[in-house]
Amino acid sequence: DGGITQSPKYLFRKEGQNVTLSCEQNLNHDAMYWYRQDPGQGLRLIYYSQIVNDFQKGDIAEGYSVSREKKESFPLTVTSAQKNPTAFYLCASSIRYTEAFFGQGTRLTVV
Amino acid sequence: AQSVAQPEDQVNVAEGNPLTVKCTYSVSGNPYLFWYVQYPNRGLQFLLKYITGDNLVKGSYGFEAEFNKSQTSFHLKKPSALVSDSALYFCAVRVPRGDDKIIFGKGTRLHILP
After folding, report:
1. What is the distance in angstroms between the Cα of B80 and the nearest Cα belonging to chain A?
2. What is the DSSP code (8-state) at residue A97?
3. Which residues in chain B have their CB less than 8 angstroms from residue A55's CB?
C-alpha cells in the first residue's frame, strides 16, 4: 500500500539530547513537510522540501534540522537547542499544488 | 503573508442537525483551499478541496464546502451531523506559485451531541 510512515510513534528525550524522527513515503511525491502540533495552536510549519537536496525553513525552524538526501525520506532532528520540544509532530507529502497526505504522527516527550 | 482563520475553537451541534465550520483566508493570488479532519492521536485525513470551477465542492463522508471569493471564506458544511463526525477540523490554504507552503488554521473542535 502507498502511504507515508512516521516512526517511532512515541519518543522520549532527555534534557540536552538530540533525537531524530523518521518520515518515509512511497507515493513518489516531490514535496515533504514537517509540522508541530500543540493544543490550541494548530499546525505550525517547521521545515519543508520541494525537491531532493533542497529544503526551506518554515515558521518555527529554530532548534530543528532536516535533510533530504532521498526523495522518499525527510528525517527531522530535534536538537538540544529546542527548549520546549514536547509536542505531536506530523510529516506530510504532496504533489505540487494539491492535497497533502499525512503520517500518523510522533509524540515526543521530554523526560 | 498567507493566513487562515478558524474563528471558532469549538462547535456543538445536535445529531441530525446541519453543521457549519467556518474558515476565512488571506492570500495574495488565487488560493487552493482544503479541509482535513483529525481524530485523537492520529494524522490528518483529507476531506475535500477547492482548486477551481464550481464554488460548491463535495468531499468524503457527506461533507461539502462553499468557496466565496468576495468574502474570502471556505466554510465546511454537512446537512445532517453524526456523532461519529466529532473530531478536530482544519482548514488549509496553498498558493500555486512561489514557495508553495501549506498553511493551516488553528483547528475547530466539533462536538456532535447525541
Report:
1. 26
2. T
3. none
**Full DSSP string of A31-57:** EEEEEEEETTTEEEEEEEEEETTEEEE
Q: Kindly report the backbone phi and psi dihedral angles of residue B60, in degrees, each rounded to the nearest multiple of 5, phi listed first.
A: -75, 155
How far does B13 lie from chain A, in Å, by closest CA? 20
In angstroms, what CA-CA distances link A28 with A48, A53, A73, B57, B77?
Answer: 16, 15, 11, 27, 32
The pLDDT assigned to A20 comes to 97
Q: How far apart are CA A47 and CA A70, in angstroms?
A: 16
Percentage of chain B modeled with pLDDT above 70 = 99
Q: What is the pLDDT of residues B34-52, one digit of tens each?
A: 999 999 888 999 999 999 8
